[in-house]
Amino acid sequence: MSFLIFAAFIILLTWVFQTTLLRVFLSRETESDLRQTGEKVCLYLRPRLPLDAENMPQDNFLAWLQDESLATDIYLLDGNGKVLCSTEPTAEGETAAADAPTDGAFAEVSGQISEQGVVVKLSDEYYVFAYCMEEGLVQGGQLSDLYIFVGYSAQLSQAAMGTMRVQLFIISIIVILLALVVSAWLSTLLTKPIIRITKAAQRLATGDFSVNFKSEYSYAEIDALAETLDYAKEEIERSDRLQKEVLANVTHDLKTPLTMIKAYASMIQEISGDNPEKRAKHTQVIIDESDRLTALVNDILDLSKIRSGMDMLKITNFNFSEFVHTVLERFDYLTETQGYTIERDIDDELYAEADIEKMEQVVYNLVGNAVNYTGADKVIRVRLKRSEGGMLRLSVSDTGKGIPPEEIDTIWDRYYRSAETHKRPVKGTGLGLSIVKVILVKHGFPFGIESEVGKGSTFYFELPEK
Asked: CATH number for the 220-305 domain, one of 2.40.110.10, 1.10.287.130, 1.25.40.880, 1.20.120.80?
């Protein structure tokens, strides 16, 4: 409909121009050309005045006039309207009224003549330029006025405009039909892929991730939309899979300590209630498992709060170098009791702006992750250096098994539940890296992983130096 309305509007403008504006334009152009021709005739005659009515220089005069303007008829008349000579053969004694295409032309025009001459539109098809040269004629031994009439017939222009209107009518019908066909074709071409994408999106909304938005489309914008929707589908599918995985693993991790708490409570009730040593051992298991449940619940709550935006950032400027040293001191018990080595390469007096509490979670989780997965040498390396573009780069490296390339992109989103046979030195819930990612994304800090299977991994992030 829009295309048809646009085509109709263009045709309407063309009709207005052809029937109104063009007619006015042609009328003005005709009057301008006619006046110029009349003024040239006057200039030619003025030096030759007065003319003798009985001996007009007709041959040379008519030859010059004919060369000057082939589209006009030029007449020289006396005060009675008698034609003295003209570019059109006329019987002697005939008047302009008889010779001109419109009867009464001389009587009608002569009363309107001014000193500059006048252009009069006698009809849609005939225009006249009239000028009076006072005492420019010798007639019967007396000086009298000489009248110059320049007539122009617009019959050809009118005929041409009539032909143009017929042609415009035919063209209008053709354009409307073409607009109807083209707009219908374009509409189908546009709406068909949109309908297909809409149906695929409706299937996606029901949880059908097998839909495919990509296809051979005629428009680059539709292709871009399809690619974007496919990417969104993959992310939604990935998020859905992660959600189910997290739910399954959290359920498992909740079930295990609850089972142990119940089992050891029953043992205290039935077996070790009167034995202080066994009772203390059994209650310690209950306390440890309760702590594990508390840590898991807290991590889930932290992750949910940060992702939902409820936990707002409290940005402050602080000494990031001293801050990292302070966090690393929390792992001193591992170096003293279990033989771990935390190598530090930290530049002094490096300042940054961030949420201190959140950054403590990030550094602690990264170091804790490295402790849990480092190699048999139990070495962890922590580096803090200036990077390019006024950034600070903190990296935490381990010497563990490394991460396969296919898992690099998903390691931050995975719910990590270790399949290792050894007990982790740092208690974890498996949500540590997810929390790190959410905090860093909320701050807008770039982060990543560099890993090689069999040689360990390096987790890093960057933040602006202040």
From this structure: 1.10.287.130
Measured in whole angstroms, how far is the alpha carbon of residue 56 from the centre of its chain? 78
Among the residues of 206-268, which ranges form H helices?
Answer: 220-267
CATH code matching the domain that covers 2-161, chosen among 3.30.450.20, 3.40.190.10, 3.40.50.10800, 3.40.640.10? 3.30.450.20
Confidence of residue 64 (pLDDT cuts 50, 70, 90): low
Cβ neighbors of 70 (< 8 A, separation 6 or more) are: none
Q: Based on DSSP, count helices (H) and strands (E) in the chain, helices before strands.
A: 12, 13
With tokens 């019908």, the residue in question is 173
Q: Can you read off the two tokens belonging to residue 16? A: 């207005």
Taken as a whole, the chain contains a residue count of 466
Neighbouring-strand partners of residue 465: 352
Please report, for the chain, the start and end positions of each structural domain, with discontinuous segments joined by +: 2-161, 220-305, 312-464
Average of per-residue pLDDT across 202-226: 81
Per the rule left: phi > 0, alpha: psi between -120 and 50, beta: everything else, 403 is beta
Specify the higher pLDDT residue, 310 or 297.
297
Read off the pLDDT band of 298 (50, 70, 90): confident
Greater confidence (298 vs 28) lies with: 28
Assess contact for 416 and 432: CB atoms under 8 A: yes
- Rounded Cα distance between 72 and 101, Å, is 12
Q: Which fold has domain 312-464?
A: Heat Shock Protein 90 (3.30.565)
**Dist. CA 162–CA 18, nearest whole Å:** 10
Average pLDDT over residues 69-87: 75
pLDDT in tens, 310-354: 567 889 999 999 999 999 998 888 888 888 999 999 999 999 999
Dist. CA 17–CA 412, nearest whole Å: 69
Mean pLDDT confidence for 352-373: 90
Q: What percent of the chain has pLDDT over 90?
A: 16
How many Å apart are CA 31 and CA 157, to the nearest integer? Answer: 13
DSSP string computed for 76-115: EE-TT-BEEEESS---TT-BHHHHSSSTTHHHHHHTT--T
DSSP tag of 128: E
Inter-residue contact 79 to 89 (CB < 8 Å): no
CB 412 within 8 A of CB 433: yes
Distance CA 401, CA 299 (A): 26
Question: What confidence tier does 96 reach under pLDDT thresholds 50, 70, 90?
Answer: very low
What is the spatial distance between Cα 82 and Cα 74, in angstroms, rounded to a whole number? 13
Tokens of 342: 């935390």
